[in-house]
UniProtKB/TrEMBL annotation:
One of its GO terms (biological process) is proteolysis. GO terms for cellular component: extracellular space. PANTHER family: BACILLOLYSIN. Keywords: Hydrolase, Metal-binding, Metalloprotease, Protease, Signal, Zinc. GO terms for molecular function: metalloendopeptidase activity; zinc ion binding. Residues 1-20 form the signal peptide. This is Por secretion system C-terminal sorting domain-containing protein.
């Protein structure tokens, strides 16, 4: 309990930092802008406002927005990324060079604008999200001052954007901007929809009172990742259909594919358990309203016919994915587009008015129920979460150019499901996206083994075109592995903006790998796979990354013979042929002191690290320094650690003085097998010194 409470506090603290609007690199970034102002085709940097800062494994990313008289120009951004070495390694520009200078004083109020918007889209029932911001807008042929009102409400699926002239009150545009999963591979759209009048009143989702988070571990029955994959079955096999329009039928075959999993956190409020953690929370956001499935136990064990099954399934997969990103990969990524969530992703397992679709918008996920319930297929869940990751990493600058976000969602889903090893490479389903929800009578599904190449293979349909992107990422995944590809993908995506195409995203992903000091072989793999997929990859500039600062101890004669640090130095070059040399050279005799070691790559690029040579110690002092032996008592093995002399031996004696074990200490931490010893007291002696330690063998 205490650990969970502490973690939640740390997550909240980190979340506040991750949304900081200041950076000590802002001055350096603005200086770079001035130096490159002609290449960027800008007049000056005075109309740029730093709106978002992100620090992570690949460095620090700053996002500047174009401004006119203090009002942001809609959908504009200059991204500048600093590597961990402090140099600018990537930039991406999305500016409107044709925007006109206009008055930025609105003639109608924000309140009136919301009233007009509500009437236009017939807002009724519970409003789950509403935002109104003033922009300079140049998307409809002329530059205007507008209010952009975005509203989500339970009686109508989606996230509705109304662009309204801030001077006249005229509605200029109405559209659903939620990112939908799609059906039969086609883009879905509610644009031009006719709104039916409702008699219900508008009211807002209640704001929860702030309280201490009370989490406990729980459990749930879920699909990993879907019942067809885990059973190695085909849709239509006996027991493996959705129910033929009769609802989520329980069959022995489908229920048999459920797996009991641990939920690291579920909320416990006075004995009432809810699917809520530090990362994810269940909500009713759209109709139908089927409840939140709270109960008096932390075990959320539902069968497939129960609505709670989809709720527990979505909760487990989203929470698990976000824990993997933040805790395993060490990449900060939480919901950050709606501050009312306090960094938590909201999800509704039964929305979309029951339609066969799902969507992401404004920090929430909503899953439909038509045909196979979307919340039953891990691929659908991870795909929709992928849109959220894209949105949060970029501070709201998700791009659908060339279907980039659709392909990113498909990659994220496939990267997760592939590790479950349900299919072999010879199975067609090995590359399937949405194995349970698609590739059946519901719809055709997608693949990560798409044959088209970029850009000639683009067909201007985001779900189809996104398969080029997901396919090449999985080809990289097959060579360098899941964790490294996931890291490069997420960090690279964080450098993109709302106009980034697949071409520039590929460059950003490879640059993230370089900035995270991936081995040159991995960078070369990326270059080759991206090139084969049709992307034009700029030549890799030779780069050398030194090991961290080192401390050694002088040996005989109180001097240190310089060792080789070349194997610890990573040289990245176009074809990985560059090598490194070091100064001082290997074998140089060094007296105690601190030295700067310079590693130089072929071509002259260099890096430095500090080498500290400590004075020689006597044998006894050297062995005793930081010496540890544990566990004590021990049953099968002991570990000895300390600053040992190179080639030092450890000898183990019984109480009769008989030597039973002798081992050479190669590293400063060695494990010694004592399973053959009888129970009793033993002495560990470090040969060549007077240092001994006693331990007990159980």
């Amino acid at each position: 309990m205490k650990k969970n409470l502490l973690f939640a506090g740390l997550l909240s603290l980190f979340f506040s930092f991750s949304n900081a609007q200041t950076s000590d690199k802002e001055g350096q970034a603005r200086a770079w802008i001035k130096e490159n102002i002609k290449e960027l085709n800008l007049n000056s940097d005075s109309n740029l406002s730093l709106r978002f800062v992100r620090k992570s494994l690949s460095g620090e990313t700053l996002r500047f927005q174009q401004m006119i008289n203090g009002v942001p120009v809609f959908d504009t951004e200059l991204v500048i990324h600093f590597s961990p070495n402090g140099d600018i390694s990537y930039s991406d520009l999305n500016f409107d060079k044709n925007v006109a200078q206009i008055s930025t004083v609105p003639q109608i109020t924000k309140e009136d604008a919301i009233a007009i918007s509500d009437k236009k889209i017939d807002v009724a029932g519970m409003v789950t999200f509403q935002e109104n911001k003033l922009f300079v807008y140049n998307k409809l042929g002329s530059t205007k001052l507008v209010y952009r009102i975005v509203t989500s409400f339970e009686e109508r699926p989606g996230s509705w954007e109304v662009i309204l002239d801030a001077n006249s009150g005229e509605v200029l545009s109405v559209k659903d901007i939620a990112i939908h999963c799609g059906f039969n591979g086609e883009e879905t759209s509610n644009h031009g929809v006719k709104f039916e009048k409702s008699n219900s009143q508008k009211f807002f989702m209640p704001v929860e009172e702030k309280s201490a988070l009370a989490f406990e571990s729980g459990s749930a029955m879920v699909f990993l990742a879907d019942p067809l994959s885990s059973a190695h079955a085909t849709y239509g096999d006996t027991g493996f259909t959705d129910g033929n329009g009769q609802g989520d039928t329980d069959t022995a075959q489908l229920n048999g594919q459920r797996v009991n999993v641990t939920l690291p956190q579920v909320e416990n409020t006075a004995g009432t358990y809810k699917l809520k953690s530090s990362y994810v929370e269940i909500k009713n956001l759209e109709n139908p309203n089927k409840g939140l499935f709270t109960q008096a136990t932390s075990n959320f064990a539902f069968t497939r016919s129960q609505d709670g099954f989809e709720a527990a399934n979505v909760f487990y997969h989203t929470d698990n994915s976000l824990r993997y990103i933040n805790q395993t990969l060490g990449i900060p990524c939480v919901q950050n587009v709606d501050n009312s969530h306090a960094g938590v992703l909201w999800f509704d397992p039964s929305g979309e008015n029951g339609a066969d679709n799902s969507h992401y918008s404004n920090g929430v996920l909503v899953f439909g129920e038509g045909c196979v319930d979307d919340g039953e297929d891990g691929d659908v869940i991870w795909h929709e979460l992928g849109h959220g990751l894209h949105d949060w990493l970029t501070g709201g600058s998700l791009s659908q150019v060339n279907g980039l976000s659709e392909g990113s969602g498909d990659y994220w889903a496939q990267s997760h499901s592939r590790i479950l090893n349900h299919w072999t490479t010879s199975d067609a389903a090995y590359h399937y996206m949405f194995n349970w929800d698609g590739h059946n009578t519901c719809w055709g599904g997608r693949t990560t083994n798409y044959g088209a190449v970029y850009p000639g293979g683009l067909v201007n349909q985001v779900h189809t075109d996104g398969q080029i992107w997901s396919t090449v990422l999985m080809k990289i995944w097959d060579v360098i592995g899941r964790e490294k590809t996931d890291k490069a993908f997420l960090e690279g995506l964080s450098m993109t903006n709302s106009s980034t195409n697949q071409q520039n995203a590929a460059i950003a992903v490879r640059q993230a790998a370089i900035d995270m000091n991936f081995p040159c072989a991995d960078v070369l793999t990326m270059t080759q796979k991206f090139t084969q997929a049709g992307y034009t990859m700029p030549a890799v500039t030779t780069r050398i990354n030194c090991p961290g600062n080192q401390t050694v101890v002088a040996g005989a004669g109180n001097t240190y013979s310089m060792a080789s640090f070349i194997s610890q130095t990573n040289v990245i070059s176009a074809n990985c042929s560059a090598t490194a040399t070091q100064n001082p050279a290997v074998g140089t005799s060094l007296a105690p002191g601190t030295y700067t070691v310079t590693m130089t790559a072929t071509g002259g690029t260099s890096c430095n690290f500090q080498l500290t040579v400590q004075p020689a110690l006597s044998v006894d002092e050297f062995v005793k320094k930081n010496l540890k032996l544990y566990p004590n008592p021990a049953s099968t093995e002991i570990t000895v650690s300390g600053d040992f002399i190179s080639g030092q031996d450890i000898e183990i004696y019984n109480l009769l003085g008989q030597k039973l074990i002798q081992k050479n200490l190669i590293t400063n931490e060695e494990k010694i097998d004592i399973s053959s010893l009888s129970s009793g007291v033993y002495t560990a002696k470090f040969k060549g010194s007077n240092t001994t330690l006693k331990f007990i063998k159980n």
